[in-house]
Amino acid sequence: ATRRYARNRRPPSESEHHHWITDRLSDPGCLLNLVLRDCEPAGVLRLDALTEDPLAYEVSILTAPEYHRRGIGGAALALARALVPGARLKAVVLPGNRASQALFTAAGYLGGADDAWWSEPTPATPGAPERSREHARERSHA
Questions:
Q1: Buried b vs exposed e over 110-138: b needs ≥16 C-beta within 10 Å?
Q2: Which residue, of 15, 36, 79, 139, has the fewest CB within 10 Å?
Q3: What is the pLDDT averaged over residues 71-88?
Q4: Against a cut of 0.90, is the pTM above it?
Q5: What is the pLDDT of residues 88-133, one digit of tens each?
Q6: Cα(127)–Cα(110) distance, rounded to whole angstroms?
Q7: How open is the CA angle 10-11-16, to the nearest 5 degrees?
C-alpha cells in the first residue's frame, strides 16, 4: 500500500535502494529528513532542488503505514516550509490519491497542471536573512 501512489510502484531491490539512498545523501540539492513521533521514526520528508527554478523544491513524503492519519504528513509539510521558507514547493500528487490531495489542500497547496501542487513562499519577515539552499541544508542536518 505504501507505493500505491508512487511514480514507480515497483519496490526497489536492496541494491537499488542502497544506490538510491547513497545518491540522495551525497546530493547537495537534496534535503532528506527523518520525521519522528515520540522519538520513533514515523516517516521521511525529502526536498529535491528543481533545476528549472533555483528557489524551488519538489516535496516527497513517506509515512509509515502504522502512522497514517496521525498528523505525520501535515507535520512533514510544516517542516518543509520551515526548512525553506523562501522557496516555492512543488508536490506531484497522482490522480485518485485523495488522502494526499486533502493533505496538500489543508497545507495551502494549490493544484495545477500535470498533477503538480504548489505552495508559494511564506512572506518574508522584515529584517530576516535571505534563505539560501546552503542555509536550508544546514538546518536540515541540525
A1: eeeeeeebbbeeeeeeeeeeebebeebbe
A2: 15
A3: 93
A4: no
A5: 999 998 888 888 889 999 999 998 777 899 999 977 645 444 545 5
A6: 28
A7: 110
Cell numbers linked to 101 = 490531495
Q: In a 3-state reduction of DSSP, which class is residue 106?
A: helix
Identity at 83, one-letter amino acid code: L
DSSP string, 9-40: -SPPPHHHHHHHHHHHHH-TTEEEEEEEETTE
- Which phi and psi (to 5°) does residue 46 adopt? -125, 130
Burial 15-43 (b: 16+ CB within 10 A, else e): eeeeeeeeeeeeeeebbbbebeeeeeebb
In this structure, what C-alpha cell is assigned to residue 16? 537499488
Give the C-alpha separation, 10 to 99, whole Å: 21
SS3 call for 140: helix
* Separation CA 118–CA 58 (nearest Å): 9
Q: How far apart are CA 51 and CA 12, in angstroms?
A: 25
